[in-house]
Amino acid sequence: MATALAESTRIVLIGIRNAGKSSLMNTLFEKDISIISSTPGTTTDPVTRQMELGALGPVAITDTAGLDDEGELGKMRVMKTLESSAASAINIFVTPQDKAPTIEEKEILKELLIKNSRTPLVCVLTHSDCPANIEKVELVSPVPKVKVNNLTGEGAQQLRNLLIEQKEKLIPEMTPLEGLVDEGDLAVLVTPIDLAAPKGRLIMPQVQTIRDLLDKDCASLVVKERELYSFYNNLIQKPKLVITDSQVFHKVAADIPENQLLTSFSILFARKKGDLEEFIKGIINLKKTPEGGRILVMESCSHHRQADDIGTVRIPRLFRQLVHSNVEFDFTRTLPSDEDLEKYYMVIHCAGCMINREKMMDRLERIRRKGVFITNYGLFLGWVNGLLPRALEPFRDLYEEYREAFD
């Protein structure tokens, strides 16, 4: 089974039109992935393909539209390119070595160098069989670089090696249960099978949590909420941790002892993908929601919404019942512009299991810069069910921080 895109190291090719990005994509994969043409603007939407890249493991490489694309459609394509770059783990700046730098190249390289402290940057000089432009050489001098001839493939292996070297600069995404269980522990996973559950399989957070338990030499017991009480009370070895789907928090808490550590998949992934402390600040500020405030519910994947959908139905209903009745809700799967973000008091985000940490942290940073609070589904539903700070007990520092805020 292929590694999920969200768990692959994201690498993005970025540059102006006809810099050789699509040709480089084909060179790296040694087959035709992207359409290439001398006509500027051949690539209109990001094209992503996966491969294994040595010690770097599974990677997802994205070919993007040129940064100098023109017209209204061109501006939209450039926005998509910048979104892809913001979610990347490694950026590859692709530029023809024989041409003088364009204004767009100078601007984007300046931005990429600023981001380089947290997102590794490498440069590929295409047209390597042509004489190098002096100004171009000076422009890219601060960046690790390699020359690649897309016609012959010369330099491709050096590029792969350079990408693998960036592994040391990457901040590894923590696993769902990092620091929460030890070898030999038992964890109980409560997984409702309702109308919203995908047919014939578990959802991504459940799958990844089970795999993490196996990797840590732990045991797992997977039950539906209806069977939890009887199975739990028949256990000789009590679990180190009970992990539940957020929507059955209340029932699960009622069926296990109060001293049993309890949390949710959504809270685990809030920590894995984003900033759990920032999400807790959102919960602390729930009751300060102003009259007529606007709340944005944001999801990261497309799925068929059921009649009692958690994001579009349950959360707005519970918010109006328990926080403030006079609020407006909007729903989105993409981050709004900075101008539109300013309209909101709070963003309530899904677990983010289908996006990588880089994309989630980029969203968090943009939301935070606009002074907008953010929390996630699991924490909100834990609060609704009176299970905070209990659901934070596995994370002792954050548990204490939450308690102090409400003392």
TrEMBL record:
**NCBIfam families in the record:** GTP_HydF (TIGR03918), small_GTP (TIGR00231)
Classify the source by domain of life.
Answer: Bacteria
A GO cellular component entry from the record: cytoplasm
Recorded hits in SUPFAM superfamilies, A to Z, give: P-loop containing nucleoside triphosphate hydrolases (SSF52540)
State the PANTHER family in the record.
TRANSLATION INITIATION FACTOR IF-2, TRNA MODIFICATION GTPASE GTPBP3
List, in alphabetical order, the GO biological process terms annotated in this UniProt record: tRNA methylation; tRNA wobble uridine modification
Q: For the Hydrogen maturase F dimerization domain, which residue ranges apply?
A: 177-274
A molecular-function term among this protein's GO annotations: GTP binding
The record lists the organism as Spirochaeta isovalerica
All copies of the Hydrogen maturase F tetramerization domain together span 278-394
Q: One Pfam family name from the record?
A: MMR_HSR1
Instruction: From the Swiss-Prot or TrEMBL record, give the protein name.
Output: [FeFe] hydrogenase H-cluster maturation GTPase HydF
List residues of the G domain: 10-126
